[in-house]
Amino acid sequence: MTMRAVKTIDHSGGAQTTGTLTLIARNPRRPYQLGKTSGTFTPPTSTPVHPLVSVDGRPVSLGFGLRARVTLAAGPHLVEVMDDHHYESRTITVDENATATLWFGVGLLRSEPRIHIGSQEYAAASIKVDRRAEQVGAAASTVAFIAGLVTLLPWLTDIDAVPEHVPMMSVIAFAVAVFWPVRALARALLRLRRPVDIGAPEPEPVVPSADPAHEVMLVPHGAPLPPAEAAVRLRFRAEPRALATIMIRDRIGGHARKRRMPYFSNSRVDWLAAPEITVNGQALPPRWGTWWIPVRPGPVRLRVRLPGFVDGKRRGPSATAELRLSVEAGQVRQVECRYNIVELAAARLRERPGAEAEWQRVLRGHRRLDKAVRRARAPRLALTALDTERIEIGSRAQH
Predict the structure, then answer these.
(1) Which domains does the chain have, with CATH numbers?
(2) Nearest CA to 347 among 375, 380, 371, 305?
């Protein structure tokens, strides 16, 4: 069997000194096997849900083996990854006549968005908690099945009124029913544990801050928190209430019975330009990720502008949010910025009727698009101050 070669993409721009960046995806979502929908639109029978990647703002398509090889000018380059309307970015330096490799993995749950960019081990850790919770759930189901064979099966068998096939089916149903709550409980307990070392990259310095002793940084999940006298930690997230409306009711994998399920899709038309952040009048470079912003103790004015979807050189529709808060010495204020992807996409469709994403077409085919827009009642962009924590140098970022 011959291995297919990975195509090399030239983004060097004619530079004399170049290097190569290899991008590799881990943990892609499984494709849907959709049944036929009612109406005139029929979605594809198998929908790939691979993450989307851009390097220095230019799209890069993943090829065979979910890999891409990009020729770039020697120097630093910004890599951005998008999955299920969430984003993460990382700067990597490509040396002359050398190859740099960057792995990225995504979480499996819409309720726990996670994108890891870094080493192979760090990318694989994006689903570590989910896999462990599934293992705990499977073990609990096995124990429940054995317990059912020992206790439930003999008891039901002795009842004359119970049909012959019911006792064993009851044991199987009991074992399956145990899996779901145990898995959910295990996942919740694992999330509460103190973050451990999962091979996260070090925080990435971006620009100087208002505190001359410390820099503004992007902090990956699981990385040790940088030092600061006082700080704001700003994370971005697609509005969960809006994402929850991107649901369909269909048959999966040949099952006769329809059921509701989240619909995942990644389309270039849904790519949002990186947010523009201003802190006390200081503009930060547009970046996706979780920001660690050292500030002087006292009042802080935070402003975020989302330029909108990328359409060539065009951007829009945009959204802006502002927040005023106070930060004391030794404190870090947690701030979350949520963007309503459903409302933004609806506004885009009103401005450009041809710019319809795959998930919009699928929901329209299921006659659920208008309902999703009505139910996604949240601002296009909102800033919310969350918890206040003491700064503990070396503790790990969990977002």
Answers:
(1) 8-126 (2.60.40), 129-192 (no CATH), 204-390 (no CATH)
(2) 380
